[in-house]
Amino acid sequence: MKNVFVLVLLFCVPLFSSAQTLQNFHDFEVVTIEGDTISLSQYAGKKLLVVNTASYCGYTHQFNDLEALYEQYNTNNFEILGFPCNDFGSQDPGADSTILEFCTSNYNVSFQMMSRIHIKTGDTSAVYKWLQRADLNDVSDVSVTWNFNKFLINADGTWAGYYDSPVMPNAPAIVDWILAGSEPLNISKTEKLISTVAVSDQGIQLILNESTTQDLTLRLLSITGQNLGEFEIQKGNSNFFLPANLNAGIYLIQLNTGNSTETIRFVKS
Protein backbone atom coordinates (compact mmCIF):
# COMPACT_ATOMS: atom_id res chain seq x y z
CA MET A 1 0.00 0.00 0.00
CA LYS A 2 1.34 3.40 -0.94
CA ASN A 3 2.47 5.51 2.00
CA VAL A 4 0.87 8.93 2.34
CA PHE A 5 2.93 11.70 3.86
CA VAL A 6 1.20 14.68 5.42
CA LEU A 7 2.87 18.06 5.57
CA VAL A 8 1.34 20.42 8.09
CA LEU A 9 2.24 24.05 7.46
CA LEU A 10 2.82 25.92 10.68
CA PHE A 11 1.95 29.56 10.17
CA CYS A 12 3.45 32.19 12.40
CA VAL A 13 1.09 33.35 15.15
CA PRO A 14 0.55 36.94 13.90
CA LEU A 15 -0.73 35.62 10.58
CA PHE A 16 -3.96 34.02 11.73
CA SER A 17 -4.37 34.71 15.42
CA SER A 18 -5.95 38.10 15.09
CA ALA A 19 -5.73 41.02 17.43
CA GLN A 20 -8.70 41.97 19.54
CA THR A 21 -11.35 43.51 17.32
CA LEU A 22 -12.80 46.70 18.76
CA GLN A 23 -16.20 46.09 17.18
CA ASN A 24 -17.79 44.04 14.45
CA PHE A 25 -20.31 45.25 11.89
CA HIS A 26 -23.30 44.31 14.01
CA ASP A 27 -22.22 46.59 16.87
CA PHE A 28 -22.97 49.81 14.98
CA GLU A 29 -26.11 51.93 14.82
CA VAL A 30 -27.01 53.82 11.66
CA VAL A 31 -29.77 56.12 10.47
CA THR A 32 -31.92 54.94 7.59
CA ILE A 33 -32.83 57.20 4.70
CA GLU A 34 -36.32 57.39 6.24
CA GLY A 35 -34.80 58.83 9.44
CA ASP A 36 -35.02 55.81 11.73
CA THR A 37 -32.06 54.81 13.93
CA ILE A 38 -31.44 51.08 13.69
CA SER A 39 -28.90 48.62 15.03
CA LEU A 40 -27.01 46.65 12.41
CA SER A 41 -27.38 43.66 14.73
CA GLN A 42 -30.79 43.18 13.11
CA TYR A 43 -28.87 41.76 10.14
CA ALA A 44 -27.13 39.07 12.20
CA GLY A 45 -27.33 35.78 10.34
CA LYS A 46 -27.44 37.46 6.93
CA LYS A 47 -24.66 38.19 4.47
CA LEU A 48 -24.47 41.84 3.46
CA LEU A 49 -23.22 43.82 0.50
CA VAL A 50 -22.49 47.38 1.67
CA VAL A 51 -22.16 49.99 -1.08
CA ASN A 52 -21.63 53.76 -1.14
CA THR A 53 -23.99 55.22 -3.72
CA ALA A 54 -24.40 58.45 -5.70
CA SER A 55 -27.25 59.69 -7.88
CA TYR A 56 -25.21 61.41 -10.62
CA CYS A 57 -22.22 59.16 -11.21
CA GLY A 58 -21.01 57.15 -14.19
CA TYR A 59 -21.68 54.07 -12.04
CA THR A 60 -25.21 55.09 -10.99
CA HIS A 61 -26.61 52.52 -13.45
CA GLN A 62 -25.36 49.88 -11.00
CA PHE A 63 -28.52 50.57 -8.99
CA ASN A 64 -30.22 48.37 -11.60
CA ASP A 65 -27.73 45.56 -11.02
CA LEU A 66 -27.86 45.91 -7.24
CA GLU A 67 -31.65 45.70 -7.23
CA ALA A 68 -31.58 42.67 -9.54
CA LEU A 69 -29.04 40.98 -7.27
CA TYR A 70 -31.17 41.75 -4.23
CA GLU A 71 -34.36 40.44 -5.82
CA GLN A 72 -32.65 37.22 -6.91
CA TYR A 73 -30.80 36.35 -3.70
CA ASN A 74 -32.72 38.02 -0.88
CA THR A 75 -34.22 34.64 0.00
CA ASN A 76 -30.66 33.33 0.54
CA ASN A 77 -30.28 35.34 3.77
CA PHE A 78 -28.69 38.18 1.82
CA GLU A 79 -29.22 41.94 2.11
CA ILE A 80 -27.85 45.06 0.47
CA LEU A 81 -27.26 48.27 2.41
CA GLY A 82 -26.77 51.47 0.42
CA PHE A 83 -25.00 54.48 1.94
CA PRO A 84 -25.38 57.67 -0.16
CA CYS A 85 -22.28 59.87 -0.11
CA ASN A 86 -21.42 63.22 -1.72
CA ASP A 87 -17.67 63.07 -1.07
CA PHE A 88 -16.63 61.73 -4.48
CA GLY A 89 -17.17 64.30 -7.21
CA SER A 90 -20.07 65.93 -5.33
CA GLN A 91 -22.39 63.53 -7.17
CA ASP A 92 -25.09 63.12 -4.51
CA PRO A 93 -25.87 66.63 -3.24
CA GLY A 94 -29.56 66.16 -2.48
CA ALA A 95 -31.34 65.71 0.83
CA ASP A 96 -32.24 62.20 1.97
CA SER A 97 -35.80 62.60 0.73
CA THR A 98 -34.52 63.63 -2.70
CA ILE A 99 -32.13 60.67 -2.87
CA LEU A 100 -34.85 58.23 -1.83
CA GLU A 101 -37.23 59.58 -4.49
CA PHE A 102 -34.49 59.30 -7.11
CA CYS A 103 -33.65 55.69 -6.19
CA THR A 104 -37.21 54.44 -6.07
CA SER A 105 -38.63 56.29 -9.06
CA ASN A 106 -35.70 55.66 -11.42
CA TYR A 107 -34.40 52.26 -10.28
CA ASN A 108 -37.19 50.74 -8.15
CA VAL A 109 -34.72 50.26 -5.31
CA SER A 110 -36.25 48.10 -2.58
CA PHE A 111 -33.16 47.26 -0.54
CA GLN A 112 -32.42 49.40 2.51
CA MET A 113 -30.86 52.80 1.86
CA MET A 114 -29.30 54.79 4.67
CA SER A 115 -29.03 58.47 5.46
CA ARG A 116 -26.26 60.24 3.55
CA ILE A 117 -22.85 59.91 5.21
CA HIS A 118 -19.28 61.15 4.92
CA ILE A 119 -16.50 58.77 3.94
CA LYS A 120 -13.60 60.81 2.58
CA THR A 121 -14.20 64.33 3.88
CA GLY A 122 -15.66 65.76 7.04
CA ASP A 123 -16.76 63.44 9.83
CA THR A 124 -16.21 59.94 8.44
CA SER A 125 -19.00 57.54 9.35
CA ALA A 126 -18.03 55.09 12.12
CA VAL A 127 -19.20 52.22 9.91
CA TYR A 128 -16.88 53.30 7.11
CA LYS A 129 -13.96 53.78 9.47
CA TRP A 130 -14.45 50.14 10.45
CA LEU A 131 -14.81 48.98 6.85
CA GLN A 132 -11.54 50.65 5.81
CA ARG A 133 -9.22 50.01 8.77
CA ALA A 134 -7.58 46.71 9.66
CA ASP A 135 -7.01 47.85 13.24
CA LEU A 136 -10.81 48.06 13.59
CA ASN A 137 -12.12 45.28 11.30
CA ASP A 138 -9.21 42.92 12.08
CA VAL A 139 -8.84 41.89 8.43
CA SER A 140 -7.77 44.48 5.88
CA ASP A 141 -6.90 48.13 5.21
CA VAL A 142 -8.92 49.48 2.26
CA SER A 143 -9.48 53.00 0.98
CA VAL A 144 -12.78 53.75 -0.71
CA THR A 145 -11.75 55.19 -4.07
CA TRP A 146 -15.03 56.37 -5.60
CA ASN A 147 -18.79 55.83 -5.62
CA PHE A 148 -20.14 52.26 -5.72
CA ASN A 149 -17.27 50.55 -3.91
CA LYS A 150 -18.54 47.27 -2.48
CA PHE A 151 -17.83 45.55 0.84
CA LEU A 152 -18.92 42.04 1.79
CA ILE A 153 -19.91 41.27 5.38
CA ASN A 154 -20.27 37.71 6.67
CA ALA A 155 -23.39 36.55 8.50
CA ASP A 156 -21.51 36.82 11.81
CA GLY A 157 -20.66 40.49 11.18
CA THR A 158 -17.03 39.95 10.16
CA TRP A 159 -15.33 41.62 7.19
CA ALA A 160 -15.27 39.32 4.14
CA GLY A 161 -14.16 41.25 1.05
CA TYR A 162 -13.90 44.45 -0.97
CA TYR A 163 -14.46 45.33 -4.64
CA ASP A 164 -13.83 48.61 -6.46
CA SER A 165 -16.42 50.53 -8.48
CA PRO A 166 -15.94 48.80 -11.89
CA VAL A 167 -16.69 45.35 -10.39
CA MET A 168 -20.33 44.61 -11.14
CA PRO A 169 -22.61 43.62 -8.24
CA ASN A 170 -23.34 40.28 -9.95
CA ALA A 171 -19.65 39.41 -10.43
CA PRO A 172 -19.09 35.63 -10.10
CA ALA A 173 -16.97 36.00 -6.96
CA ILE A 174 -19.75 37.95 -5.22
CA VAL A 175 -22.49 35.54 -6.28
CA ASP A 176 -20.37 32.55 -5.22
CA TRP A 177 -19.89 34.15 -1.81
CA ILE A 178 -23.63 34.76 -1.43
CA LEU A 179 -24.42 31.16 -2.32
CA ALA A 180 -21.70 29.60 -0.15
CA GLY A 181 -24.40 29.15 2.52
CA SER A 182 -23.41 27.02 5.48
CA GLU A 183 -20.90 24.96 3.54
CA PRO A 184 -17.45 25.38 5.10
CA LEU A 185 -15.69 25.68 1.75
CA ASN A 186 -16.59 26.70 -1.78
CA ILE A 187 -13.86 25.88 -4.28
CA SER A 188 -13.24 27.24 -7.76
CA LYS A 189 -10.28 25.49 -9.33
CA THR A 190 -8.91 23.43 -12.21
CA GLU A 191 -7.87 19.80 -11.95
CA LYS A 192 -4.12 20.22 -12.35
CA LEU A 193 -1.83 20.50 -9.35
CA ILE A 194 -4.51 19.82 -6.72
CA SER A 195 -6.90 16.88 -6.97
CA THR A 196 -8.97 17.29 -3.79
CA VAL A 197 -9.81 19.97 -1.24
CA ALA A 198 -11.40 18.79 2.00
CA VAL A 199 -12.14 20.05 5.50
CA SER A 200 -10.94 18.05 8.51
CA ASP A 201 -10.31 18.63 12.20
CA GLN A 202 -6.73 19.51 11.29
CA GLY A 203 -7.71 22.28 8.92
CA ILE A 204 -8.26 22.76 5.20
CA GLN A 205 -6.60 19.84 3.42
CA LEU A 206 -5.17 20.18 -0.08
CA ILE A 207 -4.29 16.86 -1.72
CA LEU A 208 -1.82 17.02 -4.58
CA ASN A 209 -2.57 15.36 -7.88
CA GLU A 210 -0.62 12.12 -8.24
CA SER A 211 0.93 13.50 -11.43
CA THR A 212 2.42 16.44 -9.49
CA THR A 213 6.06 15.41 -9.13
CA GLN A 214 7.71 18.82 -8.84
CA ASP A 215 8.48 21.11 -5.93
CA LEU A 216 5.73 23.68 -5.36
CA THR A 217 5.61 27.23 -4.09
CA LEU A 218 2.37 28.06 -2.29
CA ARG A 219 1.17 31.61 -1.68
CA LEU A 220 -1.90 32.36 0.42
CA LEU A 221 -3.59 35.66 -0.47
CA SER A 222 -6.53 37.64 0.80
CA ILE A 223 -9.21 38.53 -1.75
CA THR A 224 -7.69 42.04 -1.91
CA GLY A 225 -4.31 40.57 -2.87
CA GLN A 226 -2.55 40.82 0.50
CA ASN A 227 0.15 38.15 0.78
CA LEU A 228 -0.58 36.13 3.93
CA GLY A 229 2.29 33.69 3.55
CA GLU A 230 4.57 31.88 1.11
CA PHE A 231 5.74 28.28 1.53
CA GLU A 232 7.81 25.68 -0.27
CA ILE A 233 6.25 22.23 -0.73
CA GLN A 234 8.82 19.54 -1.49
CA LYS A 235 8.01 16.89 -4.08
CA GLY A 236 7.04 13.58 -2.53
CA ASN A 237 4.57 15.14 -0.10
CA SER A 238 1.06 14.06 -0.97
CA ASN A 239 -0.95 16.65 0.94
CA PHE A 240 -0.82 19.48 3.42
CA PHE A 241 -3.14 21.50 5.64
CA LEU A 242 -4.03 25.16 5.94
CA PRO A 243 -4.99 26.08 9.53
CA ALA A 244 -8.52 25.48 10.73
CA ASN A 245 -8.60 28.92 12.39
CA LEU A 246 -8.60 30.98 9.21
CA ASN A 247 -10.94 33.94 9.63
CA ALA A 248 -14.15 33.85 7.60
CA GLY A 249 -13.64 35.42 4.20
CA ILE A 250 -12.56 34.87 0.61
CA TYR A 251 -9.02 33.63 -0.02
CA LEU A 252 -6.79 32.71 -2.94
CA ILE A 253 -4.19 29.94 -3.00
CA GLN A 254 -1.58 30.24 -5.76
CA LEU A 255 0.50 27.15 -6.54
CA ASN A 256 3.55 27.46 -8.79
CA THR A 257 5.93 24.80 -10.10
CA GLY A 258 8.02 27.19 -12.16
CA ASN A 259 6.39 25.80 -15.30
CA SER A 260 2.72 26.13 -14.42
CA THR A 261 0.54 28.06 -12.00
CA GLU A 262 -2.83 27.17 -10.51
CA THR A 263 -5.05 29.50 -8.49
CA ILE A 264 -7.71 28.18 -6.13
CA ARG A 265 -10.33 30.57 -4.76
CA PHE A 266 -12.24 29.51 -1.68
CA VAL A 267 -14.79 30.99 0.70
CA LYS A 268 -14.29 30.23 4.38
CA SER A 269 -17.56 30.74 6.29
Description:
It is a single chain. The protein is α+β, with helices and mostly antiparallel strands and 269 residues long. The protein has two domains: 25-179, 3-Layer(aba) Sandwich (Glutaredoxin); 184-268, Immunoglobulin-like (Sandwich). The chain has six helices and 16 strands. It has a five-stranded mixed β-sheet. A hairpin with a 5-residue loop joins strand 2 and strand 3. The protein is elongated. The two termini are 36 Å apart.
Indicate the topology.
Layout (H helix, E strand, L loop, with lengths): L5 E3 L4 H4 L12 E3 L5 E3 L7 E7 L8 H12 L4 E7 L11 H12 L4 E2 L12 H7 L1 H4 L12 E4 L5 E5 L8 H8 L5 E4 L5 E7 L2 E6 L7 E7 L4 E7 L5 E4 L6 E8 L4 E8 L1
Parallel strand pairs: 1-14, 4-5, 5-6
Antiparallel strand pairs: 2-3, 4-7, 7-8, 9-16, 10-11, 11-14, 12-13, 12-15, 15-16
